[in-house]
């Protein structure tokens, strides 16, 4: 099996980081590395990462003393990755089981010309109502997603070939929508993505209607910022 580089972005991520990393380090895929790119965290994020490294020493942590965009952070992770496959897993994502990397990798062997493998998020019974609604309102129509049946591909829980990302020019240095931009560009080059519905993850990106509104406003703010400074 090819090597997988799991890239996690952190920015004051202490709330869910342990849930995220605990399942990743248990993955059964025989050849993977973990790279964390931190954007000037001020909470206990780096302390948590140091605890993992002191006990296991398996996480490569790249710190930035200034805030950087999500796009730039993802590209830093790619530039430091030694695997042929990049796995983007957000710091507020919990993988569903310890065979997730293995299962997400299988389509690369079955369909060698694909760009990547995508899955969506699901909610637990104990999750807030807003989270259940967000995760229940979108579903891909097909297993194979390309430019002819275009639907947006995100980077919260995605595996993608490193060389295809590089050939597409990498991840743009923007704070919002970096995934939509580069994934559509890759599909326009003739590549497809595979959707694995059965491998949905738990994604804790909001925990109340208030945090959902804050997230939406932050996205609008970043869109404006990206346009002003391009």
Textual characterization of the structure:
- The protein has a single domain (4-229), classed as Alpha-Beta Complex (Spore Coat Polysaccharide Biosynthesis Protein SpsA, Chain A).
- It has eight helices and eleven strands.
- It has helices at residues 17-24, 45-55, 70-79, 100-110, 129-136, 162-167, 178-188, 209-229; strands spanning 4-10, 32-39, 59-64, 85-89, 93-94, 116-118, 121-122, 144-145, 157-161, 193-195, 201-203.
- The chain has an eight-stranded mixed beta sheet, with helices on both faces. It has a three-stranded mixed beta sheet with strand order 5-11-7.
- The chain starts with a strand and ends with a helix.
- Residues 208-226 have low confidence and may be disordered.
Radius of gyration: 17 Å
Strand order of the largest sheet: 3-2-1-4-9-6-10-8
Largest sheet: 8 strands, mixed
DSSP, total strands? 11
Strand content: 15-25%
Low-confidence stretches: 208-226
Backbone structural class: alpha/beta
Q: State the order of secondary-structure elements, H for helix, E for strand.
A: EHEHEHEEHEEHEEHHEEH
Q: What is the mean predicted local confidence, pLDDT?
A: 89
Task: Give the gist of this structure.
The protein is an alpha/beta fold and 230 residues long. The protein has 8 helices and 11 strands.
Task: Describe how the helices and strands are arranged.
Layout: E1 4-10, H1 17-24, E2 32-39, H2 45-55, E3 59-64, H3 70-79, E4 85-89, E5 93-94, H4 100-110, E6 116-118, E7 121-122, H5 129-136, E8 144-145, E9 157-161, H6 162-167, H7 178-188, E10 193-195, E11 201-203, H8 209-229
Parallel strand pairs: 1-2, 1-4, 2-3, 6-10, 7-11
Antiparallel strand pairs: 4-9, 5-11, 6-9, 8-10
